[in-house]
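Tutorial handout. Part one gives the primary structure; part two gives the three-dimensional structure as tokens.
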Amino acid sequence: WDVPQEVLCPQYRIEDGVLKEYTGCVDLQEVVIPEGVIKIEKGGMPSSARQIVFPESLQEIGQYACDGFRQLEQVSFAASNVTHIGQGAFQGCCSLTSVALPPSLISLGNNAFRRCNGLTSIILPQELTKIESGTFCECTGLKTVGIPLNVTAIDSYAFKKCEKLEIVSLPDGVRQMGYETFCDCIGMQAIRMPDTIEQIGFRAFQGCTALKDISFPRGLKVLEENVLAGCLMEEFEIPEGVTKLERGAFFQCTRLKRITIPNSVTKISRYAFIGCTALESVNCADPMRFESALLDTPFWRKDHPDVVHIVWLPPDIVGNHLGKYLIEKGYLGFEPERMYHIRQPDENGIVEVSSWCDEDEPDQDGFGREDYYDWWYLDEELKTIPGVEMIHGFSNYEKRENPAIFQNQYSKAVEELKKRKIINRQ
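Part two.
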């Protein structure tokens, strides 16, 4: 006697209040979790579910419990007492459009709603104190989110690639934002940040190409690497109290025309304003202190018309490449079939390059064979610097043990580049 699959009652394996396995209808779409369940683990519900109703007894949704439930459209916490939702619990539930989390919730795990790209709005409970890393990452349809007043930290890439977020307001209690928090939120136009924030991670707003209305909190000390890279605001005031601007802080901010640098700033990376092709006004007590950072901006060239335009090393050249590839890109002087490791230019504009040349055994560190490399100090166009010789056949271990040899060639490179700058001014 064959009973149609759709009329079979769902079955669950429950141990000590933990829903461990679903063994009923494989195509069940409306799921009502039985009362008495206090925790749901991965495998406890059918992935075919379109609607899930959680019981009043439920306290925890475990890691990846609904991960990849692509048809899930609605979840009801109406009567539940859930306090914890685990890592990746609703990750990839791309049909979810809105969620009202229970007021009892105090913990929301990493990547809990990652890639829920149908999600347009979410209500977060007031007891939540932290938004974990990747919680709403790649929720490309998310338009609005209310950050509860008790939240003190928003972790790394929590809202990365939320492409439809337009306006964000952070409550006064927030003290910390992780790296890439709002990276690639291409629809974001404005964000309000309280002065309680003391740290904003690198690339926090990188790629927010519509962002025009932003001001940083007064408690901030450092503008981290690429924090505003690619943003399109026309003016920006660095708050008093900031002491340092890291590499690429304003990378490719092509519409930035005016910037104010307070007296508290003592150091700006020479790469902070790479690609700021419209920067024409710098409100600063002593711009000469930051010459190396401003050298390639319209602001500097206006008063120093003879300065030579700097050719920056493109980011895609950093890393491992065959000489053939580098030659095709216009960097001459490399052997076609040899592999080179190109490091980022340092603050003096010097690029360290290495290439494997030999090996023997035993390894001086005690782990097998010893690899030897040739080493160069080149300029940002990957050209040799006069008087700076290639260092032949040193392992990484020997490089650490013989710093004077390398420091000697590096110092020569620094002096030569300083001479170039003086000559260019004359």
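Part three, for discussion. The longest strand covers residues 351-360. Helices lie at 291-294, 298-303, 323-328, 396-401, 403-425.
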